[in-house]
Design goal:
- The structure is a homodimer.
- Chain A is α/β, with parallel strands linked by helices.
- Chain A has two domains: 137 residues, Alpha-Beta Complex (Aspartate Aminotransferase, domain 1), CATH 3.90.1150.10; 221 residues, Aspartate Aminotransferase, domain 2 (3-Layer(aba) Sandwich), CATH 3.40.640.
- Chain A is 41% helix and 14% strand.
- In chain A, the strands form three sheets. Chain A has a seven-stranded mixed β-sheet with strand order 2-8-7-6-5-3-4, with helices on both faces. In chain A, strands 9-10-12 form a three-stranded antiparallel β-sheet. In chain A, strands 1-11 form a two-stranded parallel sheet.
- In chain A, helix 6 links the parallel strand 3 and strand 4.
- In chain A, helix 4 runs parallel beside helix 10.
Chain lengths: 369, 369
């Protein structure tokens, strides 16, 4: 190990939160036929966004606007809030990294659900915080349990995704509002709403943006169909939002992503169409699962988590069987949620492949015991 | 200030290393006519890169490959080294931030030139390091002075850009090799070679990539004409290169940037053309400067730093006069280098505007005393 590393960085594992499907493809020596494992949006971005990105490529010799001014203004209009409540970054991952850098240090306690977002955990460890994990309850993040854990450890940060990844389940706005009302004011809630655009009405709570201890996180990677452009944003109190400027990489966004996201916001009709496509695909996945004797969990996201009805070892075999059949899917990491596999909303072609190959994967998984 | 910040982050100023030209345009209420202030490449990227980015926009719904595998392989081929010596990031800025996070902590001494890259200084401060600055000598970074300062403070990190920004001057490969040979092995050299592709042959030293205390930094923002795509890379020893994986944002690169950079590497002919365009533009700037009684410094970069012949106050007035005339330029921050303004290589249209307006800016600057 290099002698130049700080003791803390030297103590960190060189882990990767996620192995990409491209790495699996390289290892397998062939491409996936269906790419429905990373909660991407196969429905793609608005044609307006695509055109804007292609146009912006023509001025790629110019650095991006480090203030993300136009996009921040447009998001402020969308949410009917002041731009001073909005910070833009290279995806929610980057924003979570900045938030951890801003708030987490050795001795700081952080609470999350056991089996929730690995990249958040990676950043907490990266800044030396202590992570306390609360098990899921009935495949939902356990709001009461999270709150109790925050109190027990006087946690400075609580991470919650609503709707949840990897389970797809959700709490309605009232329950989130209650959580916020009961949260100690010494604890900052990071509310990851990556999937909220495709959740039922009444899922996104009405939280005043100047609430001092809530940061909401949104993304263009899911319903907006722009995961490859790396655009996310945070909504929160002015002082915290302004504090990103102390540490962030001011020129981190690409000029092309800025232009694409800005154009995507202008096409809410496209977004509505995608949301409808997602709802149809969710039903399709649920139907395929049921037809094979499996139990689809209710989902407010662009994927459906499917209970394979046995233990983690069995679900891992089902997953391996699908991957062998060129269908890229993933699954929860932690028991008992690892009895499930997570299937993304796909095109009708993707769904047909799933339907075609699921029984083979199940048969193999059953016979391998 | 938010109560959630760590004491160190709370102590940091909310400074911005650079104000973008877009912010100046918003303030002025009108666009610049010539954008030659940020060392961008007005000659743009290879048409192959442009086409690749426009194609990649069509698959922007997919996350990028977090390993940047294809681009790393191609860079390894270009430099005839193993990909294990290469790390890719969202521009040199991001890589410098990661390197500071990996190596700098309170109590760690870092050496740079006084008036060199503000973004590096920002990251050093951001991780609590102590910065020691060495004045330029004859408008060059002072290698002997830097080395002495490293020894005096037992510095862990030395930052050097060669060719230099903002002065445009450079040291030949032998002098850099000597510096490396004389550097204590407890000091890591960050050798920023952002401009090296357009420097005279014999500027880039031959440093074995497994030299344990040298990281070289390269970018697609300058000669490759892709500043808006945010692509940089580091070359260095395997252990340090692998250590980026402990802390980096694995999904930070955009898929479009990956594709663009990969295609750009395939068009070395375009690169040669740009390098030739840069050389011509440098001569043009030098000629315009001389015709106005100013002294152009020799340059190995895509800009020419021009000595306005008086003090910093005068040069700032000249700069203001050019900006008033819709010509975006910048200048060194620190005396006595701030007697200069820094003019980027432009199109012939940009150069004509410069030629047209420089005398007015100079006349105003002289009369304002």
């Amino acid at each position: 190990m290099s002698a130049f590393l700080t003791p803390h960085v030297a103590s960190l594992p060189a882990t990767v939160p996620f192995v990409g499907p491209e790495a699996q493809e390289r290892q397998r020596g062939r491409r996936f036929a269906a790419r429905i494992g990373a909660n991407e949006s196969v429905f793609g971005p608005s044609p307006l966004a695509l055109a804007a990105m292609q146009r912006a490529a023509g001025e790629v010799w110019q650095y991006p606007d480090p203030e993300n001014y136009d996009l921040r203004q447009a998001l402020a209009t969308l949410h009917a809030i002041d731009p001073g409540h909005i910070q833009i970054g290279e995806g929610i991952d980057t924003l979570l990294g900045y938030l951890c850098r801003m708030t987490v240090a050795p001795g700081v306690n952080v609470v999350t659900s056991d089996g929730a977002y690995p990249t958040f955990n990676y950043h907490v460890a990266g800044y030396g915080g202590t992570l306390h994990r609360v098990p899921y309850r009935d495949d939902h993040e356990d709001l009461a349990g999270l709150l109790a854990m925050v109190r027990e450890h006087d946690a400075r940060v609580l991470y919650l995704s609503n709707p949840d990844n990897p389970m797809g389940t959700w709490h309605n706005a009232e329950r989130i509002t209650d959580l916020v009302a009961n949260l100690p004011d010494t604890c900052l809630l990071l509310l990851d709403e990556a999937y909220v655009e495709c959740a039922p009405a009444g899922t996104a709570p009405d939280i005043a943006p100047d609430t001092p201890n809530v940061i909401r996180l949104r993304t263009f990677s899911k319903v907006y169909g722009m995961a490859g452009a790396r655009v996310g944003y945070a909504i929160g109190p002015r002082d915290l939002i302004a504090s990103f400027d102390r540490i962030r990489n001011h020129f981190g966004m690409t000029r092309i992503a800025q232009a694409g996201a800005l154009a995507a916001l202008q096409d809410q009709e496209w977004l509505a169409g995608v949301i409808s496509d997602i709802a149809i695909a969710r039903d399709t996945i649920a139907g395929i699962a049921r037809a094979h004797g499996l139990t689809p969990l209710p989902s407010a996201t662009n994927f459906v988590t499917v209970d394979c009805g046995r233990d983690g070892a069995f679900a891992r075999r089902v997953l391996a069987g699908l991957i062998d059949r060129d269908i890229f899917v993933r699954m929860p990491f932690v028991a008992p949620q690892d009895r499930c596999i997570r299937i993304g909303c796909g095109t009708s072609w993707d769904m047909a492949l799933l339907s075609e190959h699921l029984s083979g994967a199940l048969a193999d998984a059953s016979s391998e015991v």
